């Protein structure tokens, strides 16, 4: 029987690397990202279903859930960095902060709610990608870190409320991605971990199905 996963933010970075890893193991994939061109190319490469769109759009969330009526894994990987250059909290634009929470907190919860019936039926798993910025006091990272702290607590409570599921909130560590480059510069980002190596560790986690909880892949 083929396992099925939904992966958000799947056109690049960790989402793309995990999609490739799971596809290589025979998983059926429903992939989403905002950019349709890159996503369609990834889906064609992997034999996956591509549903481009914005995870903050309720209609898009419904389409994703409808595309996977039988579901074993939800990976909430799509994320927004927020305002760049990263500003201190004293001048963080509040409209931008609200938008950041919508993408990094509300959208993952909406997708969890939409897919819970299928995940309960399969006793499946949920991976919420977080960050060490959720707990570290890094200057300039207050907006992003606050959103990831909220996602961690959301995951924590969800794991208590859904004991038949596996819920993991995963800190992947610094990776050489466009998002990190936008935050710290391309040169520093190039020294970070390869997303493919992080995806391999994440795939091992998914396959071994440990108890729900926070996981650091650093």
From TrEMBL:
One of its GO terms (cellular component) is membrane. Keywords: Oxidoreductase. InterPro entries: NAD(P)-bd_dom_sf, Sc_DH/Rdtase_CS, SDR_fam. It holds the Pfam family adh_short. GO terms for molecular function: oxidoreductase activity. Belongs to the short-chain dehydrogenases/reductases (SDR) family. This is Short-chain dehydrogenase.
